[in-house]
Every structure is written in C-alpha cells, then in structure tokens.
Amino acid sequence: MRATSMRRLAGGAASLMLIGTMILTATGSALAADTRKIYLGPDPAYTTGPGTLSFTPVTTGGASLSKLYLKNIDNQTLTHVVITIQRTQGANSIEGIVLGPDAGKCAVTATAITCDYGNLKAGATRSFWIIVDAQATTDVSAQIVFNESNNPNGGNQQIDQAHATIPVGDATCDSAATFVPPGLAKTLTPTNGTDCAGDGQRSGLIVPASSDGSVISVDDSLTAVTCPAGFSCFGNQVSANVNNGASVSPYLKWTIFYTNATLGNVNPNKIAFVHDGTIIPAGNKGLCKNATSTNCQEPFVVSATGVTFTVRTPSNGLIKGMH
User: Fold this and answer.
1) Cα-only R_g, the chain
2) What distance in Å separates the CA atoms of residue 183 and residue 20, rounded to the nearest whole number?
3) The whole model's pTM is what?
4) Element (H, E) at 262
5) 104: exposed, middle or buried (C-beta count within 10 Å: 0-12, 13-18, 19+)?
6) What's the CATH architecture for 17-166?
7) Cβ-count burial of 157 within 10 angstroms (0-12 exposed, 13-18 middle, 19+ buried)?
8) CA dihedral 186, 188, 194, 195 (to 10 degrees)
9) Closest CA relative to residue 65, chosen from 226, 190, 178
10) Measuring CA to CA, which residue among 159, 8, 140, 172 is closest to residue 65?
11) How far apart are CA 304 and CA 65, in angstroms?
12) 260 neighbors 306 (Cβ within 8 angstroms)
C-alpha cells in the first residue's frame, strides 16, 4: 500500500459532526427572550438544549446525507414556516433529491431547495433529508423564515441562517465513504483520482440497492494481522461499514485484487479469508454453491497483472486474506 495512504476512518467511518446550535428565534439568536422558538437538527425527540446537526461520513467526490427534523418548540402555533437551502454551498452542491417523510413539501429549482411547511402547531415536527455532493470541507447553511411573511426585512419574520461545517475526508487509493440514494446499487472502490497502479492491493465493495439508501465506507490501509491458528495473514485487512452494521440483502460483495508482486509465490487456490471470525475456505471448498450463498468465494479471476477475489458475506465488518 502507498505510504501516503490515509489511515482507516475511525471505526470504519470518520465521525463527521456538523457543529452548530440550531435553536433559533425570530431575532436570530439562540434561546433569546423572544418566545418564538424552532429547532432544526437530527433529533426528532428534541425538547430542550442545543441541537447538533450531523452528516454521514464522506470523502472527496462522494455524497453525504443529512436527516433534518424541524420542530416547533414554542408554546404557540408558528405560521408560514419556510426553509430555504441554496444548492451551491462553497465547493459543495446540494443534490436535487429530497428524501424523508415530508419531502413532498419541498420544491427544487436549479439554485435552491425550498420547503414550505405552512403553519406548525406547538410541538409539531416535520422531517426531510438532503444529500450533499462533497468536494471540500466547507460551511453549510439553511435559512428559516416564519410568521406571516417571507419578507426578510420585517421585525419578526426571519431567522438568521443556521450554519454547520461538513468535514470531507481526502480521497485515497485505500479509503472511501459515500451515501447511495434509495433504489441504487453501488460499487465503491477507493481512488485518489488516478488509476492507483502502484497499489499492491485494490479493495472495494459491491452494495445492492436498498429502499432507504446506504451509507457505506471501505478502508484497506492496514496490514492484516492476527489470523486464526493454522493460517498466515496475507496482504491488508479490509474494513467496511454499511448502514452501521445492518444485514445486507441478499449479500455484500467484497472485491479484493492482489497484484502479482503482492501474491509472490502464493497460489491463488490457497487464498482463504476470515470475516469477523468466520473462516471462508480457499479453493473449491470455499466456493459459493448457489446464487444466495454467503460466507463463500466466487471463482477468482486471473489477469496479466494479478488476481481478483470476490467474497460474499451477509454483513459488513472486517475481512482478511490468509493462506
């Protein structure tokens, strides 16, 4: 692996927390004397205290999901509540896809997403999700307006912008993280924008489509160690996170390519794998028996430059090659 490779995202995925108090009043200050208060953040049960908006882990060129809950935490009805999010946010852009139970109230133009939730009774909550195409760490903001008018110059109509910073990890030949929208499958292979030809091991994930979308990350920057008794670890371990460890239907595919230089004199027929303690045997013994088999290998593929192994597992976690 390259010496400059980024170390694995902590726990398979960097914690990318967007910082900002999202309790806003008509004067634009947090918890001010004005009684009109509204919350914007990731917690649908929010009642008191500051909110912290979070985006899913992402590396350069990937996408990040933010689940936003809008809640009237006042003791009176707020009228004509509107959220506006500009689609260009520094180097990043907001996709023209709005998800979530109340996404139907959001209109998308080439420049902005505008969610008009009308009158919100005390305690009422609305939810919508946005997707950021991430290129660089930058500020993300939303404007909230309520009470009678969208006039930004009135005395009690506009809430100042809600700000948060989305950190974007560097894209490397070893690590990648992204969000995949609902109904789409994804093959995620880390790259730094080159063909990564000098990388002795190229690891990736093939994630099937999910009705709720998938938050995924993969990292193979660390040498494989501590394999089961009777085996020697081989190459680098591969860490993956798909939807925080949820089962993957029908299965998750791991693709691991070893160059000829990395293989050396190791026979591909002798390469086994261990996935979170489950041994996946080498050769015919470990081959997948049918279309739904898991914890097994598909036939490996030999090319002029190396060998590609494809392993099926029912979930994500940690996988190591061994012989």
Assistant:
1) 24
2) 32
3) 0.82
4) helix 260-263
5) exposed
6) Sandwich (2.60)
7) middle
8) -90
9) 178
10) 140
11) 39
12) yes
3-state secondary structure of 105: helix
Class level of CATH domain 175-322: mainly beta
3-state class (DSSP) for residue 83: strand
As given in the structure block, the two tokens for residue 306 are 């190396």
| DSSP H or E segment with residue 236 | strand 233-242
Distance from C-alpha of 250 to C-alpha of 248, rounded to nearest angstrom: 6
User: How many Cβ atoms from other residues are within 10 Å of residue 121's Cβ?
Assistant: 10
Domain ranges of the chain: 17-166, 175-322
Residue 48: strand, helix, or coil? coil
Each residue's pLDDT tens digit, 231-287: 999 999 999 999 999 999 999 999 999 999 999 999 999 999 999 999 999 999 999
Identify the bridge partners of residue 320 per DSSP, sorted by sequence position: 274
Structure tokens that stand for 271 in this block: 């390469």
For the stretch 102-128, pLDDT in tens is: 999 999 999 999 999 999 999 999 999
- Using alpha carbons, select from 159, 142, 175 the residue that is nearest to residue 57: 175
For 172-212, write each residue's pLDDT tens digit.
999 999 999 999 999 999 999 999 988 999 999 999 999 99
Contacts of range 285-293, beta carbons closer than 8 Å, 24 or more positions apart: 288/312, 292/250, 292/251
Torsion angle of C-alpha atoms 29, 124, 43, 54, degrees rounded to 10 = -60
Helix, strand, or coil here: 282? coil
17-166 and 175-322 in the same fold: no
